[in-house]
Amino acid sequence: MLALASLPALLPAYTLRVKHPTASGGVVELEGIAGTPTGALSFGVELEVPAGQPGIHGWNVGLSHDSSVLTADAATLDETAADTLGAEFSSVDIVPSGIVSSVILDTPHSVLLPAGSKSSVLFATYSGVYPAKDTTVQTRLRLVDGLQGPSGPVTTGATAWNGVSEAAVSPVRENLIVLLSGFEYSTAFDLSLTTDGARPMGDAEVLAGFIRPGSQPSYRVKVLLESRLPPGSDSGAQGWSLSIEHDPSFLQPGPPTIQGTQAGSLFSGGFQKHELISNDSGNGVISAVVLSLTEPISFPPVSRNDVLGIDYRWMGDTSIDGKQPATSIEFRDKLRGQGQPVNNVVTHLGASNRPLVRRRLTLDLEVGDPPLQPFIRSDANDDGHRNIADAVWILSELFFRGPPTLCFSAADANADGLKDITDVAFLLQYYFLAGRPPSAPFPDCGSVFEADPTSCPLGSTSCGAP
Ligand SMILES: [Ca+2]
Ligand SMILES: [Ca+2]
Asked: How far is Cα 456 from Cα 404, in angstroms, rounded to an integer?
């Protein structure tokens, strides 16, 4: 056994750190349905060798957990430095209340964790059960001394090699606090996403349609909040927070707004904050609204309201005719802006509720010109005849609650994109005062591309299929 010389103090510290991908400031918060298993929770331990310090030749790790909260299911050195550097000796064992591991890289000291490096030295997987609704249990994964390994108590630390002799080092220990929180889905509130023309299909709203080659259309997406509180409730949703993800390679959102929504019309002296997010938490929109901070304003207990509008611009490739791009916009908890990660939550009587049915919006598109429905401009009543009856039809629709013209463009006699009294006057001029005739398609069925591709839907005239 070599005598261990002590290293001078005040040099940059070696650090042994417990890690999790979502840990922040030494805390990892995990959330799940109350009473259900957490599934596999994976953590790592990392050894940092500071620049300018001797390399590391071996280490012992004792990692303790509270076995009343977490169960250690697996511990491995695969993919750690012991594995990738082919350690001469290594062991890892799950023992009561912890995991212990010892590694020696090689006897001739030719293999070291070098100065200025960070290396994984242990991976461990735990499981537990999420606690009761709205409660949090706190536990710690701690680097400790004295856990009983197969060959005696283990002292957490490392051995450095300065080229001449070995020296024991005591890395700074960065433990991790683990918070497990339980929630239950609300049966009273649902959130969904929709846009004009979208249809429900399974657990999504689906917009199927065409994108003209080279175009970048915008879609006004609405967030809908449905409330189904029990009979006798005298108030409904008072506020909510939303976390909505999209794929930035297909869509770019504009500023979210409550203007023009039912939330916007009820909003009175409340709180609102909206952010576009593009960071390591994801790409999306977060929004928080409280309808009023001073008055008991809420939605009706049983109601369906739009609460947010977002214009998404299509950013996907539309150069290839026939391409069929598809993407979804969906609720996903934990997008993070300037504040804490945001969950999708609805507030009612001061308590938070997690909406259960959370319908996403899928855009299922095809690049190309949409098939056009043939029509006769001016034949508003769709009887195949062109005469004064069409002028009367439009007049009746506009002013006497007459039946609607199914193909908007047929009633747009002067082809200015509007359906109004001017079209009536235009037709009377043409039929009785030698005014100019309607523009194509006229007098026979035909197709033209109108500025609004939805103005003459398929099947809306008797001119037959395109
Ligand atoms: Ca007609
Ligand atoms: Ca018109």
From this structure: 13
Q: How far is the CA of 421 from the centre of ligand 2 (A)?
A: 8
Task: Report if pTM > 0.85.
Answer: no
* Residue 102 confidence (pLDDT): 97
The per-residue pLDDT for range 413-441, each reduced to its tens digit, is 999 989 999 999 999 999 999 899 999 89
Q: How far apart are CA 310 and CA 257, in angstroms?
A: 7
For 189, the enclosing helix (H) or strand (E) is strand 189-195
**End of a domain among 316, 347, 367?**
367
- The pLDDT score that the predictor gives to residue 1 is 44
Q: How far is the CA of 196 from the centre of ligand 2 (A)?
A: 23
Q: How far is the CA of 370 from the centre of ligand 1 (A)?
A: 26
3-state secondary structure of 103: strand
CA of 386 to the centre of ligand 1 (A): 5
- The CA 381 to ligand 2 mean position distance, Å, reads 15
- 274 CB burial (10 A radius; 0-12, 13-18, 19+): middle
The rounded Å distance from CA 438 to ligand 2 centre is 10
> Amino acid identity of 333?
D
Q: Tell me the CA distances in angstroms from 107 to 33, 80, 110, 122, 340, one per residue in order.
A: 50, 19, 8, 21, 49
- Quote the ligand 1 centre to 429 CA distance (angstroms): 16
**Which ligand lies nearest to the CA atom of residue 438 in the structure?**
2
The ligand with the least distance to the CA atom of 398 is 2
How many angstroms separate the CA atoms of 61 and 43, rounded?
Answer: 14
Closest ligand (CA of 380) = 1
Per-residue pLDDT reduced to its tens digit, 6-31: 555 566 899 999 999 989 899 999 99
Q: Which of 281, 280, 286, 279 is nearest to 255 (CA)?
A: 286
Distance from Cα 407 to the centre of ligand 2, integer Å: 13
192 and 175 in a common domain: no
Tell me the CA–centroid distance for residue 382 and ligand 1, in Å: 5
Q: Could you tell me the residue range of the domain that residue 376 belongs to? A: 372-466
Q: How far is the CA of 427 from the centre of ligand 1 (A)?
A: 11
Residues 155 and 235 in one domain: no
Assess whether 354 and 400 both reside in one domain.
no
Q: Are strands 15-19 and 172-174 parallel, antiparallel or unpaired?
A: parallel
Centre of ligand 1 to C-alpha 431, Å, is: 13
The alpha-helical segments, DSSP class H, found in 246-361 are 262-266
